[in-house]
Amino acid sequence: MNIVQVVTLVSPDGAYGGPVRVAQNQSSELSRRGHQVQIFAGARGDVDEAYFGPGVRTRLFKALRIIPGTGFAGLCAPTMLPSLWRTLKNADVVHLHLARDLVMLPAALLCLVRGVPFVVQTHGMIDESEKMLAKILDRLLTLRVLRASQRCFWLTPEEQASLSELLGDSHRTLERLVNGVPLAEITLDQHPATAGHHE
Predict the structure, then answer these.
(1) Which intervals hold domain Glycosyltransferase subfamily 4-like N-terminal (predicted)?
(2) pLDDT tens-place string over residues 162-185
């Protein structure tokens, strides 16, 4: 399959945390299994293009803060959108690591316009909020994206409850997805105490 993943921000200090690590582990394993994987992300600082592992095409675009005082929600990556639009033409599925920000929501809108199937993973970042910006974004786009997704993945019961509150309990695309981690390579060596000992 031709798989595209999109995440808000990659930086040398790992400021965006868990969603990037999850995208990294998922994309590396999907590539190992023979799928074609591309990751699109906003970037801040000098990031190695091999960040997401061998076989994964990493597409990084400068992240800009256009709304002061809003944390990650005020980030955008406008130069990403034309490249993503062209790539979506040949994508089989898109995995959006979705948050209420101006990197992910425009990317989601492109998926809607292109008609490409997509799944969303919210990492606990989309919940009930009294913030005016969140309410505006939800009304304009967030809820539409969640409802149009093929799957809306949750990890914790708290996240499931929040998404159910936003979407309604009858929404059928909610599904639990645990965080995959690479398997450790374990070798069975002789115990030091028995090395060289013979009966």
Answers:
(1) 17-172
(2) 888 888 766 778 899 887 666 666
Q: What is the dihedral of CA 110, 113, 119, 124, to 10 degrees?
A: 60
Amino acid at 79: T
User: Do the Cβ atoms of 171 and 164 come closer than 8 Å?
Assistant: yes
Beta bridge partners of 4: 38, 94
CB 88 within 8 A of CB 114: yes
Pairing of strands 75-76, 64-65: antiparallel
**Nearest Cα residue to 120 out of 58, 40, 175:** 175
Q: Which domains does the chain have, with CATH numbers?
A: 2-176 (3.40.50.2000)
Residue 104 pLDDT grade (very low, low, confident, very high; cuts 50, 70, 90): very high
Picking from 133, 98, 94, the residue whose alpha carbon sits closest to that of residue 115 is 94
CB burial readout 94-125, b (16+ within 10 A) else e: bbbbbbbbbbbbbbbebbeebebebbbbbbeb
